[in-house]
Amino acid sequence: xxxxxxxxxxxxxxxxxxxxxxxxxxxxxxxxxxxxxxxxxxxxxxxxxxxxxxxxxxxxxxxxxxxxxxxxxxxxxxxxxxxxxxxxxxxxxxxxxxxxxxxxxxxxxxxxxxxxxxxxxxxxxxxxxxxxxxxxxxxxxxxxxxxxxxxxxxxxxxxxxxxxxxxxxxxxxxxxxxxxxxxxxxxxxxxxxxxxxxxxxxxxxxxxxxxxxxxxxxxxxxxxxxxxxxxxxxxxxxxxxxxxxxxxxxxxxxxxxxxxxxxxxxxxxxxxxxxxxxxxxxxxxxxxxxxxxxxxxxxxxxxxxxxxxxxxxxxxxxxxxxxxxxxxxxxxxxxxxxxxxxxxxxxxxxxxxxxxxxxxxxxxxxxxxxxxxxxxxxxxxxxxxxxxxxxxxxxxxxxxxxxxxxxxxx
Amino acid sequence: xxxxxxxxxxxxxxxxxxxxxxxxxxxxxxxxxxxxxxxxxxxxxxxxxxxxxxxxxxxxxxxxxxxxxxxxxxxxxxxxxxxxxxxxxxxxxxxxxxxxxxxxxxxxxxxxxxxxxxxxxxxxxxxxxxxxxxxxxxxxxxxxxxxxxxxxxxxxxxxxxxxxxxxxxxxxxxxxxxxxxxxxxxxxxxxxxxxxxxx
Lengths: 410, 199
Known about the structure:
The complex is a heterodimer. Chain A is an alpha+beta fold.
């Protein structure tokens, strides 16, 4: 097996697993010529890569498996009995009944904090700046307040107690800890002025709302912690699951997710206008951004738009690796469009340059373009050169057949 | 008296120390933390068992056993990596062990007619393949199938596969090479014969 074939196979599987590919790998896969001989192999490796994402027919719901595992563990925490190992819990005869029961139990367990927007939430007027960063060090220490879910599952109510100092309002229990924490419930409007609040939403249709001095936070089914600094000038939103949006003056100013906490701070002075050069730089997309845009256009079926973006990438960033790889993609797209001359020019431009990653594909593309143009002598020369440069290529058998055809027809 | 789960009161705000704190609570018998742990690792466990199992019932049982083993192993979590990475290793080992045992048991006990009952409804997504991918994988020797799935479906490195399966890296390489060859051969044979997999 050639190394390029192995790379192609690994990339197909990685792409199917949903792993991000670097620009060069993505360009390599894009530049890969679709070949009927290899279509089934592509399906094979993509199918294998996506195997873990595809549900098996008749799987039990996740909640049911989780609950069964917890029950089995609680019954035998140390694993002293090997009964479970010998006979794992089997699926029930009517899974839809079990699924419905699990759904009802799940909904009951998931009922949690629901806060509606309050009338005084538009009182925020100072400018704020929201950034996605590593803000955790900015969280104030020694102050803590938490809004906790009031309705645990019925079977586990005995396991919990109302912590001292908690108050209940409108179905939400607010727990204050530390000296500086302030979190109050006023009818159905909830507000955090200082300290931390832990919130958990139940579903998207009943969002969790929390007003803070800096922003109004909305989390559909999110589980998150909001922390307002003692001076009320910064807000940290750390998300454990789901996504939280921050709103201000009726405008969304940022998002927080599990991988990207949100940090909002109130500017002490108005932010200075950005210098003109910085604005210009921000307006001009980078090579990587252009490549991504072109790939999105390709995915969306906008071939002409993608071709234009690839050409802009080559023109604006001629020395970038992305532009060099884009040449091969341009050649391939031009071939598909029937513009063999333009395709040949793109492939030859790549082959004249320093890049090596897609040299095999570019050389093969050039041979196809020459064939489409009817330049058989040049094609034969290019094929001979290809045999020398890429003796292990997967295209070699096909090209040998082509050489035989050319020789016979002569 | 209204009940309040005290699950996340007084936690650190850093994600890693947060996970460590919760897993320690789970190890100490905190039911809320145990529920959180199971819910947190379930997507990873599901991925593993889906890739390794052929039948939904096996996959569910393997997932359940993996979750139990994770709960029993909470005292081994040191917080050096994410809780998902830690749980993935445990779940893979448990799933491999359980599924291997199930396959042997089924092979010994069931007649060919019974085995037909286990055939899954066809949910093809590989349009260019003549048969169902899971059926092709099921026809490979177990060691080769495991190596292929761990490498290509779950994205493990050769070293990781060697560690998980208890063999050397060169053995893993050999299994991958042989498995790939056999898989290709099976598909090519069906293509040449113009039919789907052996059904």
